[in-house]
Each structure stands twice: as structure tokens, then as C-alpha cells.
Amino acid sequence: MTVVMPAGVQTARDLVGPAISQAVSRLSPAVRAVASYHLGLSDATGQPITAGGTGKALRPALALLSARAAGVGPERAVVPAAAVELVHNFSLLHDDIMDGDTERRHQPTAWTVFGVGAAILAGDALLALSQDILMETPPYGVWAARCLSAAVLRLIAGQGADLEFEQRDDVEVAECLDMAGDKTAALMACACSIGVIYVGGPPGLAMSLSGFGAHAGLSFQLVDDLLGIWGAPEVTGKPVGSDLRARKKSVPVVTALASDTDAGRDLAKLFGKSEPLTDDEVLHATQLVEAAGAKVRIEEMADAELASALACLADAEMPEDVRAEFAAIAEFITARQW
Amino acid sequence: MTVVMPAGVQTARDLVGPAISQAVSRLSPAVRAVASYHLGLSDATGQPITAGGTGKALRPALALLSARAAGVGPERAVVPAAAVELVHNFSLLHDDIMDGDTERRHQPTAWTVFGVGAAILAGDALLALSQDILMETPPYGVWAARCLSAAVLRLIAGQGADLEFEQRDDVEVAECLDMAGDKTAALMACACSIGVIYVGGPPGLAMSLSGFGAHAGLSFQLVDDLLGIWGAPEVTGKPVGSDLRARKKSVPVVTALASDTDAGRDLAKLFGKSEPLTDDEVLHATQLVEAAGAKVRIEEMADAELASALACLADAEMPEDVRAEFAAIAEFITARQW
Lengths: 338, 338
Description:
Distance between the termini of chain A: 10 Å
Shape of chain A: globular
Largest interface: A-B, 43 and 43 residues
CATH class of chain A: Mainly Alpha
CATH topology of chain A: Farnesyl Diphosphate Synthase
Oligomer: homodimer
Number of strands of chain A: 2
CATH superfamily of chain A: Farnesyl Diphosphate Synthase
Number of helices of chain A: 16
CATH architecture of chain A: Orthogonal Bundle
Structural class of chain A: mainly alpha
Strand content of chain A: under 5%
Number of domains of chain A: 1
């Protein structure tokens, strides 16, 4: 199955990119250089990249659609769309340090280029900016800021749980799903509802779209976990099997470990090794996760979450073309390309 | 000269401590543990510390006084006082990582106990909470949040400049003073005015107190730089000469390097060494900074900034006991104890 990126995602970058550049231009030169590099606005030497911005602009697209769901033009929601993207990038900058990831979007991560300290600060700056630009337009901007702030706190809780899971070998599937909900779904739910909130649209619509975003976000995270194990490097931008090599407690892995199968127990033994895993062991771990039934189980869960997302969408009142675009994005981000 | 901590600083901890604990209690367990440890609310194993909270509670005391300057009771400004203290601790958590500091308030720093990733997240959480608690009370809470957000962006700019200076040997005194203004004075200016803003007091009073805080904050930073070189370990909580050993580009050091004196040139040579400085070299560097005239120069600047702060204070209309308490705090934090 070939999945084509919905047109709205590209449009979002064109519409929201200038607002992000403008926000980043308020930073001091040293901090701006790191933030701009991370956002794909300039290279490591500070030269502007005219193509302007990497990444999928997925969350901004959802925020713009959210305003359109409330019956207004997408240009009215540029500020909240930019704010959500700033938060997303704050978390990427910090997560890359915590996870020791050296590559993102086929480029060296910011901390490997500028140092850990500079990357921490650039993340801090994007978080601060995200709140700052929303608060400029009370009262709805403040409501939007509160929605975003709640999502940030959940995002932090999710990443905290993720870090903590690394130290534990008794992580339960339910905890792991909570973690994914906090880490990924909360910001997605915010992106889908913040446009409605910012333009003063109906609270009921914001609630329905928040539900849509939460389910679609969880489905997206589950698929991302699957791609982290079975995804081709050209799709994921990461080396084959990197999640298993890092013994990441992703939902499929935890499901396999908790499965009460021989494969699950063998996986636990492999993960219990003190030495780094060899290439053969990573391949074997991949087979064990599948043999434990976790691949099929997570595929089913991802499908169920997508179905729940689409059900939330069906319940809400909005222009039909907007509904179709929301659905197309949900299907796009949960497509399994391997 | 013996300098006694003004009573308001202790009172502030009693009044604001519960609000900080309550804000931190909203964090997920893994993140809360790190934040609570850093704030002195619990030990490394998670046991509550009943004494409750280390640190001087200086900024909360200023925020409470700020409300009193506007003629209302200090209890009205507990939320902004807590928010300012949360921001201060966000920056300490992250700065300790960036600067590689292993001790703070005579305790191992959070990143050495819980790891870099967990300490980054705990800092992120305190920053997010600081905005969140202010936005709960529009409209003045939002004005206060914007004041704080502006201070956070300057604080980040200052820390960014500080990091960048480490890589450069041509830092100018003016840049270095800007850095100190951003890194320390901006949040102090915010603390001194946020109480007025939060209770809807006169904008002119907020401006005067912001000026007072900016000057007092810069004086404080200059004295802190001096203590970083000449301060006794029992006062600073840091090993003797640690700033010089780290070749920190503090204002006295940059002033000495830029002084066009033999001592300044000798210091530049010493700082240009590729090996770590020996104890004797650290002692020699201390003497060179003084011989270059930088100690006297920075003492004069610190005195001048304190005088400017007190002049701002004299200009503003406020109850006389509040004015006296502001002055006492400014004198307390700029006292040179060595």
C-alpha cells in the first residue's frame, strides 16, 4: 500500500513556517543558532536553508484543520499551530539528549553538533516561546496556552516514565500504554483541539477533536513502536533494530515480555544480558517479539485506536472536507510502511 | 561586617513553600521525585524532609514584598512568588548539568543522583508549572505570566551567552555585563514587580520596582562573581577558586583579561593552557585578577548598582516598612562576606 502525505501537511508548513521563524528570531544569537539548526532553518554553520524546515509539520496541520472545523480560515490559527510545533521540537531536542540519539531527520542531532548544554537551552527556549506567543492574544490565546501547558506536563510525565522504565524489568502493559498516551497522544489531542479553542469555537467540538487526537496519537505511537522494530531505515531514518538494540521498553516489547510465552521469556533473558546485543541477537530479539504474539497484538490495538479516532470524528459537527482531511491524516500517520 | 538575613526571607518560605509543594505534587511520581529532591522537599530515596525546602527563598520574598508595596497583604501574591521560585529552580537544575556542577546547597546536584535525563525533565516540569499556576487566574495572572515569560527568555539568553563565552577568548566587558543582566537581573526584576502586576497594582510602581530589581540583581551577580573567586567555601558552598579553575568568564575575569595590564596578559596565558590548572596556578590566577585592578573595579560597580537600586526604590510610592525591607534584602544579597 502506498500512502501519500495529505496536502494539508505541506500547506501547514507554508503557512506556519514564517510564524515559527519569527518566534525563533526573538532568541539571542547563540540560542537561535541551535534552535534554527534543529528546526532545519539553518545549517550547522548558521547558513539559512532556503528549503526551510524539515519534519512533517503534522501537528501544525492538525491545529489549522481544528480552526477550519470551527468554520474559520486556517490563517486564523497560525499562532497555536506554531506553538504546538515549538513544543514538539522542545521535546525532540531534550529527548535526543536523554535517549542519546545521534541522528534525527537524517541529520546529526543538535546536541552532537552544539553540545548538551546548548541543546538543553534551545529546548527550554522553544518551550518558553510556545507559551509566550499564545499569551499575546487573550482571552482565547490564554485558553489555548492552558490547553498546551496541560499537554506539556503530560508529555514530561510520559518521557519521565519512559526513562524510568529503562531501569525496571517489571513494566506492565497498562503502564506502558499510559506512557505512550502521555508522551505522544496528549500533544496530538491538544493539536487537534487548540485551533477550535483559539478561535473561540464550540467547547463540544474541541472535546470531540481532542478525543480524535488522543486515539489517533496513540495509534500513531503504537505504529511508531512497530516501525522501530520492523521499519526500514529509509522510512524511519534510524538504523535497523535500533529500538531493540537499545532495549527500549516500547509497547510491543513490554507486551512480549509480559506474554507468558517461551518467546517472551527468551526475550527477557536476552534483555538481561550485561553486554551490548550483537547484530544476530538484535535479529533474534525481533523474531522473539513476533513469536510472542506482540506484533499481531499491537497491530490490532493500533487498528482499534484508529477506529476509535474515526468514531470521535464522525460524532462531531464540522464541514465534510475538514472531516475528510482529519481522517486522511490519521490514516497517513498510522500507515505501516515496511 | 555581619549581615543578618532579613526576616522576610524566612517568612516567604513559610508562606510560599506549601504552594510550591502543591504545584510539584501535580507531577508524575518519577518527575516529582527529582523535582522534590532538588527543592529540598525530599531526600534521594524519596523520604520527605520535614524541615522543608533549602535555598534562600529570596525571590519569593521579593515577590511578596512587591504585593505589599501595592498595599495588599503578602498572602495575595503567593502564586506569583511560587512561580518565580519554580523558574529559578528550573534554571538551577539545567545550569548544574551544563556547568557540570556536582554540588549545590552542600548536596549532590540532581543530575549526579538521578541522571542527566531525569534532571533535564524535572527542570522542564518546573518551567511548565510556573506558567501553568499563573494562568489559572486571569487577567492579572496572565499579565504576571507574560512578565515571567519575558524574564525566562532573558535568563535563557544569558545562560546561552555564558556557554558561548567558554569557547571564546575575546569576550568584552560590555557583553559580559549584558550576560549577567540577562542571567540574573532579569528574573530579579520580575520578582520585584510581579507582585504588583498580579494584584493589579499601579504600572508605575511595577516599573520602579523592576528597575530596583534589575540593579540589585546585577549588583548581586557581580558580588557573586567576586565570591566565586575570593569567597570562603563555607559561605559559597563551593570549593575555593572553583570559578577560576573552571576558567569561567565571569565579569571580574573578563575585566582583568581586557585590562591591558601585565597581570591581565599573564592571566590570559594561564587561561590559554591546555592542561587543567594546578592549585598553585589557581592561587596565582586569583592574585592576577586582583593585580589587574579587576577586584576593586567590580567592587565599585557592585556598589554603584546597589546605589542605583536604592535610588529606584526611593522614587516609588510605597509603605515605608516595605521600602525598608526591600532595601534590607538588597543590602543582604550584595554583602561581601569573605
